[in-house]
Design goal:
CATH class of the largest domain: Alpha Beta
Structural class: alpha/beta
CATH superfamily of the largest domain: Vaccinia Virus protein VP39
CATH architecture of the largest domain: 3-Layer(aba) Sandwich
Number of domains: 4
Shape: globular
C-alpha cells in the first residue's frame, strides 16, 4: 500500500514548470535529457526564430523574473470545506473560496484546467492607497496566514504602494502577472477573460496580457461609462470611464451576439422562406485597394459588373469577396445595375456587441452601490461593480452549463448575476467559482461600521452574505446555493524533525495528519490533488461502521476513518468490493485509506491483499 507523503505529486498543486518541460520534450525530444533542457540544442532546432538580442519588444520591470517563477511554484496548501457557512451544500455546483487567489488558482489546476469559459476580474487599482496582495516567494501559505492574521500579528498585513516608493508600477505588476499567468491555464480553448482597469495601469496591463494571452488573442477594449456626473474629480479632465480588456485563449474566443443590442439596420426585403435581409454593396472604398480584388463579375443578366473607380488613376475601391468566394457564393449575390449586393440577413439573437458600454443598461458605479444596498439595507462597500454589467458579460460569453470565475470577487456581483440568471429557470445553469481574500473591512469608515454591524468582518464575509441574501430572494425551487472552502496549510504534516530530539520527532510523525483536521478535510484535499471537481457527486455508505465515500460513479473510493481494527478488515474490504460491483466500476478504481488508522501492519497488508484479489490494484494511504 503506497503512502502519500509531502514529497508526492498528490500533496501539492501541479508543477507547471515540469509540465512545460514535458511539453517541450514532446515537441523537441533532442533538446531535453533527464528532465533538463539543453538550450544549445534548442537554439539549433529553432534556428532564426530565436531572439537572442538584448533589445526585445515587450514590457520589463524589476521582479518580472521572480514573478514568473512565482507562477510556476507549486502550492502546498489545501482548501478546507465549510458546510456550515454554505447554502445547499449537497446540491449546489457553485464555489465560494476564501483565500489568497494566487495560491487558490494553483490548487485548482488539476481539477479545472481548460474548463472555465469566462473569467472576469476587477483587481485592486493602483491608486497609491492600501495594497493587500503582497506575495512571498518562499512560502505562499504562510504569507497568506500572516496577511489575514491567522498565524501571528507580526506579518505584513497591508502595505502602501505610493508613487513615492519608486516602484509604484513595479509592485502592482508583480502582483497581477503571476495571477494572470496561472489563470490562463484554467480557460477553455474558447474561453474569454475580461479585466476591469482604470487609466493608471491600463497601458501596462495591455502589454502584460499581450505577453500572457498572445497579442493575436486580443478581442477588444470595452469602454464602460462608470458615472454620469463629475463631482469630486481632481485634475484637468473628468474621468468618467473604465476599461475592460478582453482576451481569448485562442484566436477563436467564444463571444456571442449581444441579445439586447439595438439594431439600426432596416431589413426591408425577404426571401421566399420569410427570412428578412438588407442589401450591402459588394464594392467598398474604405478597405484598401488590392489588385486581386478588382476583377469583372458576369451577372445573370449577361452584363459585366466592375468595381467603380471615380478616379481611374487613383484606384481605391475593391470587392469585399475574392474570386473563389464569388464563385462559391454566387447565388447569394444580388445584381442591380450597375452595382452588386450581398444579402445581410436579420440576426434573430441580437447583433455583434459594441465596445462602448455607455447605456444605462450596463449600469454605473452608483448602480453597483444600489444593488448592494437593496440587499443589505445600508451601504457596506465602495465602488462595487453593477450586476447589470456582469449580466452583460455573461450574455456575451457564457451559456447554461458553463463555468465562470472571478478571483478578485470582492462583494461578488458576478455571483449575484449568475444566481439571478439561475432564478430565470435555466435548465442547465451557469456555475461559478468566486475567490476572495479575507481582507478586513475598513473599521473607521461608515461602510465598514455598517458591515461589521451586520456580522461582516472582512470582504469575503460581505460576498458570502450577498450570495445568501440573493438566494433568499430567489423564487422557490430555483437551483442555486454555493459551497464555501477556505485556504489553509495542507492536512498532511511535513517532516520537520527537532534536531535536539529526533526520537520524539519520529514518534510524532507516525500520525502525519494534523490533529485538528476532519475526515472531510482529508477527503476534499484528495479530490483537489487528484483532479476531481470540488462539486463532484459523492455517494456515502457505512461499511463496518466506517464512512466510505465513492466519487464520480466509483472511480475513487475513500475510507478515512481514524481507526481500522484487524477484526474489521474482512467486512470493510468485502463491502467495498460489493459496492464496486454494484457501480460496475471495474477498471482504474483507486481506494485510499488513512495510513495511521490501521491497528497494525498486518491489518494494512490484509486490506491490500484482499482488494487486489478482487482486481483492485490501486490501493493507497494518506
Amino acid at each position: 500500500m503506497k503512502r502519500i507523503t509531502t514529497e508526492d505529486p498528490e500533496s501539492h498543486s501541479p508543477d507547471l514548470a515540469a509540465a512545460n518541460i514535458a511539453e517541450l520534450a514532446s515537441l523537441f525530444p533532442d533538446a531535453v535529457a533527464e528532465g533538463k533542457v539543453d538550450f544549445d540544442a534548442l537554439r539549433e532546432l529553432l534556428g532564426d526564430a530565436l531572439d537572442s538580442g538584448d533589445e526585445k519588444y515587450g514590457l520589463s520591470w524589476h521582479g518580472k523574473r521572480r514573478a514568473r517563477r512565482l507562477a510556476l511554484t507549486p502550492s502546498t496548501g489545501t482548501l478546507r470545506p465549510c458546510p456550515e457557512e454554505s447554502v445547499e451544500w449537497d446540491s449546489t455546483q457553485n464555489l465560494m473560496i476564501e483565500g489568497d487567489n494566487l495560491e487558490v488558482l494553483k490548487l485548482l489546476q488539476r481539477s479545472y484546467t481548460n474548463k472555465v469559459k469566462l473569467i472576469y476580474i476587477d483587481p485592486p487599482y493602483n491608486t497609491g492607497k492600501d495594497f493587500v496582495y503582497r506575495d512571498n516567494y518562499k512560502d505562499g501559505i504562510k504569507n497568506y496566514l500572516q496577511i489575514t492574521g491567522q498565524l501571528d500579528d507580526n506579518g505584513d498585513r497591508v502595505c502602501s504602494n505610493t508613487d513615492a516608493s519608486g516602484r509604484f508600477h513595479t509592485n502592482w505588476l508583480n502582483m497581477i502577472y503571476p495571477r494572470l499567468k496561472v489563470a490562463r491555464t484554467l480557460l477553455r480553448p474558447d474561453g474569454v477573460c475580461f479585466i476591469s482597469i482604470d487609466e493608471n495601469e491600463s497601458a501596462r496591463l495591455r502589454l502584460i496580457c499581450d505577453e500572457i494571452f498572445g497579442e493575436e488573442n486580443f478581442v477588444c477594449e470595452f469602454i464602460w461609462k462608470k458615472k454620469s456626473g463629475g463631482g469630486g474629480d481632481v485634475g484637468s479632465v473628468v474621468i468618467d470611464h473604465e476599461t475592460i480588456l478582453c482576451y481569448g485563449k485562442t484566436e477563436e474566443p467564444g463571444i456571442k451576439n449581444d441579445p439586447f443590442a439595438q439594431v439600426t439596420t432596416t431589413y426591408n426585403k425577404s426571401d421566399v422562406d420569410g427570412r428578412r435581409y438588407s442589401l450591402d454593396r459588394l464594392d467598398k472604398q474604405s478597405l484598401g485597394y488590392q489588385k486581386s480584388l478588382d476583377f469583372p463579375i458576369e451577372g445573370p443578366d449577361g452584363k459585366t459588373y466592375i468595381v467603380e473607380h471615380k478616379d481611374p488613376d487613383h484606384k481605391i475601391a475593391r470587392w469585399r469577396w475574392g474570386k473563389d468566394t464569388v464563385q462559391k457564393r454566387y447565388d447569394e449575390l444580388v445584381f442591380k445595375w450597375p452595382y452588386v449586393y450581398t444579402k445581410n440577413y436579420e440576426k434573430k439573437n441580437g447583433a455583434k456587441p459594441r465596445s462602448l458600454l455607455v447605456d444605462e443598461r450596463f449600469g454605473r458605479t452608483r448602480t453597483g452601490k444600489t444593488d448592494l444596498k437593496a440587499l443589505f439595507g445600508v451601504d457596506v462597500m465602495d465602488f462595487p461593480k453593477p450586476v447589470k454589467l456582469m449580466s452583460h458579460l455573461l450574455n456575451l460569453a457564457a451559456k447554461g452549463g458553463d463555468l465562470v470565475m472571478d478571483f478578485f470577487a470582492g462583494s461578488c456581483p458576478l455571483g449575484q448575476a449568475v444566481l439571478e440568471r439561475t432564478d430565470e429557470a435555466e435548465e442547465n445553469p451557469i456555475r461559478f467559482i468566486l475567490v476572495q481574500l479575507q481582507e478586513p473591512v475598513i473599521s473607521n469608515s461608515q461602510n465598514g461600521r455598517n458591515a461589521r454591524e451586520l456580522g461582516c468582518a472582512n470582504v469575503a464575509d460581505i460576498g458570502k452574505e450577498r450570495l445568501q441574501r440573493t438566494i433568499a430572494k430567489a423564487s422557490a425551487g430555483a437551483t442555486s446555493g454555493f459551497r464555501v472552502f477556505k485556504l489553509d496549510s495542507s492536512n498532511i504534516r511535513a517532516w520537520e524533525p527537532d534536531k535536539n530530539d529526533l526520537a520524539q520527532s519520529l514518534i510524532d510523525y507516525v500520525e502525519h495528519i494534523k490533529p485538528d483536521r476532519s475526515e472531510d478535510d482529508l477527503f476534499y484535499e484528495l479530490l483537489l490533488k487528484l483532479g476531481y471537481d470540488l462539486c463532484a457527486p459523492v455517494e456515502r455508505r457505512e461499511i463496518a461502521g466506517k464512512r466510505v465515500n465513492a466519487v464520480a460513479g466509483g472511480a475513487l473510493v475513500t475510507c478515512l476513518a481514524e481507526s481500522i481494527r484487524a477484526s474489521e478488515v474482512d467486512e470493510l474490504t468485502l463491502g467495498i468490493v460489493a459496492w464496486r460491483d454494484e457501480m460496475d466500476e471495474t477498471e482504474d478504481l483507486a481506494v485510499i485509506f488513512r495510513d495511521s488508522a490501521f491497528e497494525d501492519d498486518v491489518a494494512k497488508a490484509n486490506v491490500t491483499e484482499i482488494l487486489r484479489q478482487y482486481g483492485i490494484k490501486d490501493v493507497r494511504s494518506l
